[in-house]
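Model it.
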Amino acid sequence: MMRNLLRVLECLTTLSLLVVMCAGCSKRSGDDQPSVAYVSNGTARFFVIAERGAMAGGRDFNVDVQVRMPPNGVADQKRMVQDLLSRGTDGIAISPIDPDNQQDMLTEAANHTNLITQDSDAPDCGRLCYVGVDNYVAGRMCGALVKDVMPEGGTVVIFIGRIGQLNGRLRRQGVIDELLDRDHDSTRFDEAGKVLKGEKYTILDTCTDDLDTGRALAEAEDAISRFPELNCMVGLFDYNPPQCLQAIKKAGKLGAIHVVAFDEADGTLAGIAAGEIYGTIVQDPYRYGYESVRILAGLARGDKSVLPEGGFLDIPARKITKENVKEFWDELKRVLQ
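Modeled.
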């Protein structure tokens, strides 16, 4: 009887091992539900739209999606990434805040999970691909809007959250190079604080606010006071254009100072519809979220064919002016319902 009992126990042990092995095979073959994360660089509504896309991707590709939005900068983002790595997350899509000073954290993430970048890139960290717009090209598109609204030339101040973020640096440089009629060179960088003068356009300054909307308004008010000759304010992060418009109205200079925008804040779209903001260049954050999750889901299941050729999934920017703002805004509202 004891011998029979031992045989039963031996069979149960073997069965348990088979179950564990099958579970491991299931994970490798894609029958389970991987866990992936979408990490923003802040808490702007832009990333709320991206979250909708990421969650839709989670449903379509059968993955558990965690969305993390750091409210307090680099340290907060690092803490979130380390927490995700400790949980064994199968993939992370991140918008790096300061790639030059986050190399250790990003490289660690790339060594322990499938790491891709979205919205803003960090090409030297070992990430597998970048999902987003060519920010230099999009910046030049924004500069072209300035030329449209001021064809005879004029003076410009640029407003942006951070230049340290690669997307911000490239976007700003694209505006500058377009206004100064330079050739295309995304490696060029003009330091902030210098007056940049071209044949028809002069960039008086670049004001940064570190994603602080109150500070963004203060910077806009200060620029109006410092530069009485100012003709155009260019807001390059989603909250900048509404703050610029508010400052202009407060100063009683509506119509005297033009506003050119980036991204799709409600205040920006309302300003375009009212004829108070000339136009904006928009990205597609919904697709950023959706495509990031699609790629991470495939990688988690061992499918490297999901990686875009050349390591860049280009989601082109679009120009929005009074002619198409209603159609675009209606589309955006449907996404956010």
